[in-house]
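Q: What structure does this chain adopt?
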Amino acid sequence: MPANLIHLVRHGEVHNPQGVLYGRIPGYHLSELGHKMAEVAADSFDGHPITALYASPLQRAQESAQPWSDRFGLDIVTEDRIIEPTNKFEGKTFEFGPQVLLRPQSWPWVVNPWLPSWGEPFASVADRMLAAIEDAWSNADGGEVVMVSHQMPIVMVQRYVSGRRLPHDPRKRRCSLSSITTLERRDDVFVEVGYSEPAAALLGQAADFGAV
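A:
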C-alpha cells in the first residue's frame, strides 16, 4: 500500500559561526538550537502514522532525522538523491546575492542564473528529488513518510508540483529551518497540501546560512 502523505522536512540550524556557504562540505552539524528545532519538528507530528524515515547523507540531515527515529521507532534510511546540490560557492563566507557582482572572480559562475551556472541545474535537482519521493511513496507500507532534506531541493519540489518555473531568487524561498512541506498523491501526480513551521518560535534566534 503506498503512502498517504510525504513530508519533506528541512534540517535545523547548523553550527556555522563563520557563516560559510557549506553546501556538501562534511563536518557541518546541528547547533544546540538546531537540535531543539529538529525535536520540535518531530514532536509536532505526535500521533501521526509515520511508517518510513529517509534522510540526506549529510550530517545535519541525519541529526535532524534522529528525533523522528526516536519518536516513531524507525530506522533512518539514507537517501542520496535528497542531498544538497553541488555549487561553486562552497566554502565562501559572503552572502549569496547581488554583491556577487562585486567579485569578478565569481562572474563566470553567475552568467546563467536560470540553469544555474554556479552548480547543479535546477531541473536535475527536481528530477532526483521527485524520483526519490516516487520511490518512497510506492515502497511505503501505508501511513506517512518523512524525508529530511535541504532548502533548495525542497523548494524545487514545491515549485515543480505547483507548476512554477524552477529558476527563482534564492533569497525569497519559503522553506525555513525545520519547516515541513507536505505532499499528497492525486491522479498520478504529487500536490502540496500543507506547509508548516513548527520551530517558528525559535527562528528569531537562528542563523540560516549555507544554501544557494
